[in-house]
Amino acid sequence: MKKGELRMSTGILAKKIEEFERIGKLINAPGWFYDEMLTPKRVLKMQIRANVGGKPTSLTAIRVLHRNPHPTGARPFKGGTRFHPAVTEELLTVLAMDMTEKCALAGLPFGGAKGGIAFDPSVCSEAELRNITEQMIIEMLQDNIPHPDIDVPGPDVGTNPTVMYWMYIKLADMNRFRNIPNVPAMVTGKPIENDGIPGREDATSHGLLIQLKEFIRLARPAFSDSAHPSLVIQGFGNVGYNTARLAGKKEFDFRVQAVSDKDGGIYNPNGLNIAHVKKWYDERGTLAEFPEGDVVTNKELLELKTDILIPAAIENQITKENADNIKAIMISEGGNETITPEAHQILYARGIPAIPGIAANVGGVVVSYFEWRRNRGDRKHRVDFDDEKEWVYSELSKIMHNVIQNVWTKSQELSCSLSDAAHILAMETIRDQLRKKHSYMD
Ligand code: NAD
User: Is 83's C-beta closer than 6 angstroms to any atom of ligand 1?
Assistant: First the structure.
C-alpha cells in the first residue's frame, strides 16, 4: 500500500483515515483505492480581508474537492459551505470524504466536496456576511469554480438560502465575462423564488424522518412508547429545527422532548410545543428561560433517557468518553461525524442501533441534486410550487427508503453495525466506479 497524502494527519482526519482503512480491509480494497481516496483532487486556500464584527480580519476560505468517481464531463463535485469558528482544512477534508461516500450510497452522480471559512457569522452584520461570501466567490472563480459541471457548493452550518442567493447573484454578475451556461446550477440551496427548489430547505430533516420510520418498520426497536416514540434533538438550526418541526406531523407522529443550540437546551419529558419554542427562539435568540421546559446542558441532553436521539449540530458529540452513558434506544445522525468511529463501535456492542450520517442526512444532497438537474434544464420547471414539492418529497422518499433498506440488509448479512454496513456499501460502489473509470485491472 502506497502512502496517501492524508496519512500525516491528526485529530478527526486521523480517525477518519483509520476507519477508512479498517473498512477498506473488509472489502479487500486494492492499493490504488487507498491512494485515490486518501489524496484529495484539489484543495484551494484563498486569503480574504474583511470586517468581522467591525474588526478588519484576515480569513482563509478553503474548498476541498475530494474524489469524483465519475468520468469527467457533466458530473461535478458537490458539498456544502460552512461558516463556523472550528473550520479547518482537516475537518473539511473529512466532510468532503463523507460527501463522496454519501453520493455513492444514494446513487447520485457526484464527487464529494466541502468548503468553508473559520469565523463566527453570528457576530457579523448582514453587509459583512455578504461581503465575505462575495469575496470567497470571486477567489473561487479564479480556479473556475463554482461551475455546473465542475463543483457545485450548497449550504451547511452557518450558511442558508440567503447566503446561497448572494453567491448566485455574484456568480451571475461575474458570468458576464465567462458566458458559462446554466448559472443557476452553479450553487444549490437557493431560495425557491430565486431558482431554488421547493422542499430543499427541510430536505435533510424530511429525509431523515422518512428513513427513521422505515428503519423502525424494519428493525422494530423496543421503544418505551411505540405509538408516539420520543425524540431528543441536539441543534436548532436547519436540520435540528426542521426535524423538530416536522416530527410532530401526523405522518411521523414523534414527540420531541428536548432541543438545544450551542449554548444549551430545554427538556420536557411530555413533549415540547415546537411552534412555541421557535417563536421564543426567534424573538430572543436563545432557548434559555423557555417557560415550558427545564434547562439542560448539551452534555446532559445527549445522555437523556429517550427513544431516539438525533445529534444534528456539529461533529464529535458522542465519543468513547460518553458512548457508555447514552440511554436512547437508538440514534440517527442528523449531522455529520457527530458520533466518532470508536463510539459507533461501543454503541453497536451495547445494542444501540445508530444510523450513520452518510445515510441519515443524505436527503439534503439528494434534493440539491434535483435542484441542480432542474437548473440545467434536465427537467421542466413546474410553476405550481406545491405540485413541485410533492414530486420532490415523493422522489426523496424512494431514495431514503432504498438507502436504509440496503444498509439494514447489509448489516444483517454481515452481522455488523449500521455504520459499518453503510461505509462498506459506499466504498464498494466507489471502488467499482473508480475501477471502471481508470480501467484498473485489480
Ligand atoms: P445550522 O448552522 O443551521 O445549525 C447548527 C446548529 O448547531 C445551531 O443550532 C447551533 O447553535 C448548533 N451548534 C453549533 N455548535 C454547537 C455545539 N458546540 N454544541 C451544540 N450545538 C451546537 O447547521 P445545519 O445546516 O443544521 O447543520 C447541522 C449538521 O447537519 C452539520 O453537521 C451539517 O454538516 C449537517 N448537514 C446539513 C445539511 C444542510 O442541508 N444544511 C445537510 C446534510 C447534513
Answer: no
Same domain, 227 and 312: yes
303 and 174 fall within a common domain:
no
Q: Which domain holds residue 285?
A: 203-360
* Residues 179, 142 share a domain: yes
CATH of the domain at 164: 3.40.50.10860
**pLDDT tens for each residue of 250-305:** 999 999 999 999 999 999 999 999 999 999 999 999 999 999 999 999 999 999 99
Query: How many whole angstroms from its chain centre is CA 100?
Result: 12
- Dump pLDDT digits (tens) for 366-376: 999 999 999 99
User: Do 156 and 273 fall into the same domain?
Assistant: no
What Rg value do the Cα atoms of the chain yield, rounded? 21
Helix (H, G, I), strand (E, B) or coil at 318: strand
Residues identified as active-site: 114
Q: Are residues 245 and 212 in the same domain?
A: yes
Q: What is the pLDDT of residues 91-134, one digit of tens each?
A: 999 999 999 999 999 999 999 999 999 999 999 999 999 999 99
Same domain assignment for residues 167 and 271: no
Ligand 1 pocket residue status of 261, Cβ below 6 Å: yes
> What pLDDT shows up at residue 246?
98
* Centroid of ligand 1 to alpha carbon of 434 (angstroms): 31
| Nearest partner of 33 among 9, 57, 1, judged by Cα | 1
- Please identify, by atom number, the ligand 1 atom nearest to the C-alpha of residue 239: 26
Number of domains comprising the chain? 2
Q: Is the pLDDT of residue 1 over 50?
A: no
> What are the tens digits of pLDDT across the range 3-22?
456 766 669 999 999 999 99
Q: Tell me the C-alpha distance between 254 and 140, whole Å.
A: 42
The β-bridge partners of 296 are: 265
21, part of any domain? no
Q: Which three cell numbers stand for residue 234?
A: 441536539
